[in-house]
Amino acid sequence: MKRICTYIVVIVCALVACAPSHQQVLKNIREGLVDKQTTDLTAILFYNLKQMTGKRVVYGQHNYEMDGFASDTTRWRDEANRCDAYDVTGAYPGMASFDFLHFTNPTSWETKDLGYIKDKFYAAYERGNILTFCWHYYNPVTGNNFYDTTRVVEHILPGGSHHETFKSDLRIIADFAKSVKNSKGEAIPIIFRPWHEFDGNWFWWGRNHCTAEQFKNLYRFTVTYLRDSLHVHNFLYAFSPDCGFTTEEEYLERYPGDEFVDVVGMDNYWDLRPVEGDIQQALLKARILTKYAKQHHKLAAITETGTQSRDSLWFSKLLGILHADGVELNYLCTWAGFAPYKGHPAAADFCKFKNDTLILFADESPDWYTLKMSEK
């Protein structure tokens, strides 16, 4: 018996010795990320989301406590403690989306107090949310909004006439990123989604307003300047065209390279329109994202979607895509005002969507920022 116990002790000690340490696990996670120096919390967030692939899909919404609808004709903005998703389902979204527009263009068509946005950011974090930011960047050459398609990209790249203006605005983003810390003084992770819907022509960074190589360089410079020059290490980077692709080759036409992307996504409203849309096209594109993410160690997401129609079964149709064979997305995010409000014809369907075992709202979210070694 003594000999058997000795053997058991030896085996246990050997297993402990072979088990990777917490830091070794984090090192292994970082190897697959854009930022090899990313913070512990950011690496853990990516890992935990990746581990949920095929099991749960996080539901998010843009400006969910800042913008919504009271009826088909009445919109509310910035009302204290109000959220359409909560009013309908009794739960907050599992992801909160914000916009760096307000920081780099504080006087805009949708001006908001920066302290107010920061308060909402912290509230979402304390709620257990994943945090993401897009950037509706005003035209840095003309000063007009992001729909001014005067050619810009060539002028803000290195050597361009407005390159220093661009760098200055990136510094504003970096300052915010490094200022948002939890109670332990750790930088809060953010999924940053720059230059979205670039395959359309409505933004100045769109397809017709710069070459493919200029766009790739714009994306690469954004990442490298934030990461290497400004030392922002709490970002994951999301690549999100609109839905103007039907093959992987088309999806990758302006792709900056795996070394610059953590999340492969798409914005898709068009294919999900109640009458004119094509669910099969949305399904095809979701499968393209899933396949690429699996093969290249990325997360996959519908980074923007939603509807303002009165289609009472819109969310059931979306759920059908998420449950389909060959689709394993990590999150989806509806835009502000593009999900049902209380009394909307789709409110009951939205509750059904929320209660599906695949969908994750804040009330069921795990601790995204803790690495549980026992599960590794």
Features:
376 residues, alpha/beta, TIM Barrel, eight-stranded parallel β-barrel, two-stranded antiparallel ribbon, 13 helices, 11 strands, 38% helix
Please tell me the CATH architecture by its name: Alpha-Beta Barrel
Into which percentage range does the β-strand content fall?
5-15%
Number of strands: 11
Number of helical regions? 13
Main structural class: alpha/beta
Helix content: 25-40%
Gyration radius, in Å:
22 Å
Q: Tell the overall outline.
A: globular
Query: Quaternary status of these chains?
Result: single chain
**Terminus-to-terminus distance:** 32 Å
What is the CATH superfamily label?
A: Glycosidases
Lateral arrangement of strands in the main beta sheet: 1-4-5-6-7-8-9-10
Examine the coordinates and then state which fold CATH places here, giving the name of the CATH topology: TIM Barrel
CATH class: Alpha Beta
Short description:
The protein has helices spanning 2-18, 22-30, 40-51, 84-89, 101-104, 114-126, 153-156, 163-179, 212-229, 248-251, 279-296, 314-323, 347-355; strands spanning 57-62, 67-69, 75-77, 95-99, 130-134, 190-193, 235-239, 263-267, 299-305, 331-334, 359-360.
3D structure, described in words:
There is one protein chain. With 376 residues, the chain is α/β, with parallel strands linked by helices. The chain has one domain (22-375): TIM Barrel (Alpha-Beta Barrel). It is built from 13 helices and 11 strands. Strands 1-4-5-6-7-8-9-10 form an 8-stranded parallel barrel. Helix 10 links the parallel strand 7 and strand 8. Helix 12 (314-323) runs parallel beside helix 13. The radius of gyration is 22 Å and the shape is globular. Residues 8-17 have low confidence and may be disordered.
